[in-house]
Design a protein that fits this description.
Helices cover 33% and strands 9% of the residues. It has helices at 2-27, 128-145, 208-219, 229-234, 236-244, 264-282, 299-307, 330-340, 354-369, and strands spanning 156-157, 160-161, 170-171, 182-183, 195-196, 199-202, 224-227, 248-251, 289-290, 296-297, 311-313, 348-350, 373-374. A four-stranded parallel β-sheet has the order 8-7-6-12. Strands 4-11-9 form a three-stranded parallel β-sheet. It has a two-stranded antiparallel sheet with strand order 1-10. A hairpin with an 8-residue loop joins strand 2 and strand 3. Helix 3 (208-219) packs parallel to helix 9 (354-369) and helix 8 (330-340) runs parallel beside helix 9.
Length: 381
């Protein structure tokens, strides 16, 4: 009975399949032209069943493929940070290797010719007269503008303190004369260079001057003569001789007056008038040194003197030789120099002193024996 039921189920399944195929053909008539699939129809006669059962060809069962084993997932590695790509440098083009040249045979070295000496370029000359005129103009302008009126005119007469044992004399200044280019000795003199600066004041003409000049010429020494305009005009021959024999000729004013008692204009005229008389006689500028008459001075007189380009020269050795009626005598003069001579000294002597004329040979000889040289006032700094 079980077999019959089983067979009946199989037949029923075949019938259902036939109907499904039939209706599928009805629904798709356009596919009738497609290639027909030949099928074999197997008729199975079952007992008691008259309708044949069409069996379709069995479809091939696909062979199952082996399932691949799962692969182990690799652990991700850390991604490295990108490094900066260096900029490629340009590859230099290959330079052509120079073909070595043959070494030239050594040539004979020529004898060097003497280099011509450079010619000195002349320095433009500056007219000293123009410079002097400019200085005098500026001082006159100051006088006109009243510049000097505001400067102290308190007067004093120069004095100094004599010291023995060849010690330099002390100063009698009541203000710092160095601030006004004033000097009374050379403070820079050293024992290695003993120096003395003889100065002769020439206020008036005298026959003694020729005798004194003869002594200086004999001993080949140079000194400084301070002359007035009166002396220049009275004794032009002696003035020219002083200059010709290498002596320094300096300014002692026009008329030998106390400058502190004069106006600014008069002070100017006393100084400039003397230098102009000297220039008219000799054609040369007077040395830039001034000795104030009577040793009288003030800040005002020294400032005007300085502005005119002069150094004011006082003294560190002196004695009463200017009184014609009361001369000290030859021996006094010699003894005075033997007692008070010192390094850097500036002695004051007068040309019209009979005692000086008589003693000058002995004074010069003594000072030479003591190792002194006779210096020029331009050394004063």
């Amino acid at each position: 009975m079980k077999d019959l039921s089983k067979k009946a189920g199989i037949i029923l399944c075949h019938i259902i399949c036939i109907f499904i195929l039939f209706f599928s053909f009805l629904n798709e008539p356009e596919k009738e032209n497609e290639k027909e699939v030949q099928k074999e129809v197997h008729t199975v006669k079952l007992p008691g069943v008259t309708s044949p059962t069409v069996m379709s060809e069995p479809t091939k069962t696909p062979i199952p493929t082996a399932t691949p084993e799962p692969m182990e997932t690799p652990t991700p590695t850390a991604t490295p940070e990108p490094t900066e790509t260096p900029t490629p440098t340009a590859t230099p083009e290959p330079t052509e290797t120079p073909t070595p040249t043959a070494m030239p045979e050594p040539t004979e070295t020529p004898t060097p010719t003497a280099t011509p000496e450079l010619t000195e370029i002349p320095t433009p000359t500056i007219n000293p007269e123009d410079i002097r005129a400019d200085v005098k103009y500026k001082v006159l302008q100051n006088v006109s503008d009243g510049v000097y009126a505001a400067i102290d005119n308190q007067m004093d007469n120069w004095w100094f303190l004599r010291k023995k044992q060849q010690v330099p004399s002390g100063s009698g200044e009541f203000f710092k004369i160095a601030e006004y280019d004033g000097y009374y000795l050379n403070k820079e003199a050293t024992d290695e260079d003993k120096v003395i600066y003889l100065t002769i004041d020439c206020g008036y003409g005298s026959a003694n001057t020729e005798v004194i000049l003869d002594v200086f010429k004999k001993h080949d020494i140079k000194v400084t003569f301070f002359v007035t305009k009166f002396y220049i005009e009275a004794c032009p021959k002696e003035v020219k001789r002083m200059l010709a024999e290498g002596h320094t000729v300096a300014n002692h004013s026009v008329s030998h007056l106390d400058l502190t008692k004069l106006s600014d204009q008069e002070i100017y005229e006393e100084i400039v008038g003397c230098e102009e008389a000297f220039y008219d006689l000799t054609g040369t500028q007077m040395a830039p040194f001034f000795r104030p008459p009577e040793g009288a001075y003030s800040k005002r007189t020294m400032q005007i003197t300085k502005d005119l380009g002069y150094k004011t020269i006082f003294w560190s050795i002196a004695y009463k030789d200017y009184d014609q009626k009361n001369q000290p005598g030859k021996e006094y003069v010699l003894d005075h120099f033997e007692t008070y001579h010192h390094n850097g000294a500036i002695p004051l002597m007068h040309n019209d002193s009979k005692s000086n004329m008589q003693a000058m040979e002995g004074v010069v000889t003594f000072l030479k024996e003591q190792g002194y040289r006779f210096g020029n006032l331009s050394e004063l700094k």
